[in-house]
Design brief:
Strand order of the largest sheet of chain A: 4-3-5-6-7
Radius of gyration of chain B: 24 Å
Structural class of chain A: alpha/beta
Helix content of chain B: 55-70%
Strand content of chain A: 5-15%
Largest sheet of chain A: 5 strands, parallel
Number of helices of chain A: 11
Number of strands of chain A: 9
Distance between the termini of chain A: 52 Å
Oligomer: heterodimer
Number of helices of chain B: 19
Radius of gyration of chain A: 25 Å
Chain lengths: 359, 478
Amino acid sequence: MLDTRPRLSFAPNRLPGMPTRRVTPAGRVLVTMLVCFLVWGLLDARELRRSAEASPIGARRTAALLVLDPLFFVSRWTGMDALGGVASRLLGRNPDDAPGGDLAVPPSAHGAPPARIVGTGRRGVRLPASGGLREYMLLPVRRPSRKSPERILVIGDSFAIGLGLGVSRSLANGPVKVVRQGRESTGLARPDYFNWTAQLRVDVERFRPDIIVAMLGGNDFQDLVVPGHDTVRRFNITAWNALYRQRVSRLMALATSGGARLVWVGLPPSRSPVLPDTGVVRMNDIYQTEATYHPGVVYLDSWRLFARAGGYAAFLRMGKGHRLTQVRESDGVHFTVVGYQRLADSVTGVMRSILGLRL
Amino acid sequence: MLFPTTSFAIFFAAVFTAHWMLSRFPTRWRVFMTGASYFFYAWWDWRLVWLLAASTIVSQVAALGIHRTDHAGRRRLAMAGGVTGNLVLLCGFKYYGFFALSLDNALHGVGLGSALPLVQMTLPVGISFYTFMGISYVVDVYRRDTEPAPWLDFIVYHSFFPHLVAGPIVRARELIPQIQRRRDPRSIDVAGAAYLIWGGLFKKVVLSSFLASAIVDPVFGAPGEHSALEILVAVYAYAVQIYADFSGYTDMAIGVAMLLGFRLPQNFDAPYTARSLREFWRRWHMTLSRWLRDYLYVPLGGSRGSRARTYRNVLITMALGGLWHGAAWTFVAWGLLHGVGLAAGRWREARAAAGGLGAGRPAWRPASLHPALQRAATFHFVCLGWLLFRADSLHTVGTMLARLVTAWGPAPAVTPLVLLAVGFGIGVQYTPEDLPERVESAFARAGALAQGVALGVLLFVISALGPQGVAPFIYFRF
């Protein structure tokens, strides 16, 4: 690289003998551009409108919907919406998906509670989940083997993505199957965008986990959307807390209904205005309280694990050498790989010490 | 504001219209373009706009200071001030935490306490690019390669939104004459621009995003649960991902600038077809390569001294080039690996020129490898570098290399679609050089309406094939 001059030409490359480029006046380019946006908008109106609906409540969302509602009407009226739907299916995208992802729930998961497979010695025997839940929860976690590995499901927002990888690394040598289902920008505040309750039903049915690890809430300190009703403002503390508690409780009940144990990881302190400590404390209190009401749920306090001097700390002394290590990303919210590993090691520690996981 | 978003589409349609309407009024146009570029930058975080302004002011004041005097000492002092000012901004925001942490651990090892307060900074997007442009401007004025530009021209050059956050790193003498010249609104190369923008969108939104989620992120995140074949394919996939991500961004930047009547330098030229490491660096991130050559390698002495000094200069340049990519030792190791590779290539060339290498070889052995083998060897060396570049620690690199030879087993992550995407990403670099011209010529013959419909349908296809939302560009954090 260093001595020879790079072949640096001005884009695009011109080759000898090629015809001279056709040039276009700005007005025609503007027409091309507007036609392009119109065609794209009409073909993709449904998706664009749904994405706008799912965006954070505020002026930008209102303005986007003001533009997209008539566009969607025209798209349907002209049949472009149907055309776009067919093309989407051909390209592998379901146009009826919720904007946050796949929410197709099998019919069996809607009615009766999901069937479950019980632990050691009785694995493979399907029992209805109704009744006997408490007795089941008291059963020891089965001892996994290579043929029948422990199934661990990690769910939640972007925290859960890094945490899931950390749990995989922590348990890499054991007979464990870790299924990572973390999804960015999700939570319990906006079921219109992504419905974790519906998704967890599918995940439990599909993966039959022995242990579920949940880390949610990073995106939840906002107004709570109730589909078909008014939103509940986050400043209305009593109503907000009550509704959020109800959603957490429902998710905990669902997670443990199939016999799985649940490790709920609380939120750490942050230095982002999107996730102020007041909100984190409020939500952690709800998680912790609800965990005590649901058998089989263990609450892990990540605040104590990562806070220094009562608040956010980007660097912690860790390991044998007591070396200073960066544990939080520069966005002030997420963890570094080392930070996630510290959290994951605590989660697997809980699995071993409290849930009796033997690997 | 990311290029592949609806917000940018609306922003650009408005800027495009106003830009060409104001093209007859140079001063108003400059003020407008400055405002548009600062708005574009502020969209990420308005609190960091002052950094861009500070880099502009420091660079321009230094350049004017250099130009105002013929006194060698004062000129050097002004140049040093401009370079230092930009480096302070860059190091303060990008490297302070890394250096403070490294120093603390070094002192802790010998029983001493913290030397520097540990403060975590938010990394301002694009800071590595605009500070490097500021430095090149100051040094070029000092070397009398260019004249200082008027204030408004320099502000437009430095903050011009197409190149602002991830390059290409454009020199003042390339862009400022274009800013000062009146652009002709009747001669826009719409076919060339559309090819670059739509090609870039496909590379970023479809190819790069798919490979990241399908194999790269899961394998690099938890290598312990993946087999040798999965690790091997994940490294190849990362080579394609980073190429598609970064070249996709710069293609879009060049295309957007082209619609505004500006020509930005090419930044990638089929890098995985390189037959040597030296050639790779003439094809990969070309504007950074020449920056490192002209403002680091040459001032260090280049290849003017002894062979040992040349190797030292190559190593220093590449190690610092590695550090430019991120504040972590893995980036330094990546740079050093390339430095060692480049130095070894030079040593081999010198030996061959002196007749030492290959002398006395048997008649059946060719003087050099077959070009296909040279390309394969270069690509695999580059992939070894990408392993260092992507892994979170040297420990992970060791784990992955060890598993490459020990972890035999099934490879469910290696799907036909992943192989197709990797093959496409590499194979597309071997397409005939005149292919873009032919596609563009066909496109240019169509009318405005047909062009618009075709581009709209393509946009829909890209949007349908891409994931929900847009992942951040890899090079934004550099």
